[in-house]
Amino acid sequence: MANGPGLFSDIGKRPKDLLTRDYVSDQKFSVSSFSVNGVAFTSTAVKKGGLSNGDVAALYKYKNTVIDVKLDTESKISTTITIADIIPSTKTIASFKIPDTSGGKLEVQYFHNHATFTSAVALNKSPVVDVTATLGTPTIAFGVEAGYDTTSGDFTKYTAGVNLSKPESCASIILGDKGDTVKASYLYHFDQLKKSAAVAEISRRFSTNENTFTVGGSYALDHLTTVKAKLNNHGKLGTVFQHQVIPKSVLTVASEFDTLALDKTPRFGLGLALKL
Prior knowledge:
mainly beta; Porin; single chain
């Protein structure tokens, strides 16, 4: 694919990942294995709120095609097929579920040195069409997103954003929820090896005059252990401890505290991802 500005979904992704990724609130256990013929198998079990569920997934790669199949505990099969370069500089993604066929979607992505475009349509009786366009370079990008309901003739969403990305930092501003919210974020790495980083995000919802300000960071204690933390102006404190127990296998322990109501029971999450 061309070395262009990236997809619209990449705008603000680096700060968002640091503030959300690995902050688990349930118990999750997964095992992954890889075969010599290019097939990867993953089995996942999740316990949340006293309920348990899980799925089994198989990922197969062959040349420019990737097939991802998941079977959950309710015997529902989800399949995603990704094919690159059917037309040069494009990626086609088809997803569908069995027996629930109403959740299908077809998406086409086009990549250029200075622009990317995507178009996705739901495969049902009342399809919603989503389109995005991003212009710029890998350093600075401007993008828009819109969703259109072909049945009602209404726009389901329209969003605009700008992203400034460097190896050591990333800043973005996103105007979303049909212009009702604005979110600005900034991420900075303090060293070239990206062992330590700080992030800040501020969002405002105009309809309710609500402001949310969140700061966070991560630090690699060594090549096996990383700690993360985040705190917002509503008193929510989140922490993450990650340790590589064996090569490519990670133990994650996360917690969330309400610093304005210390009498409340904190929430804890545990995750173990094994790669064999």
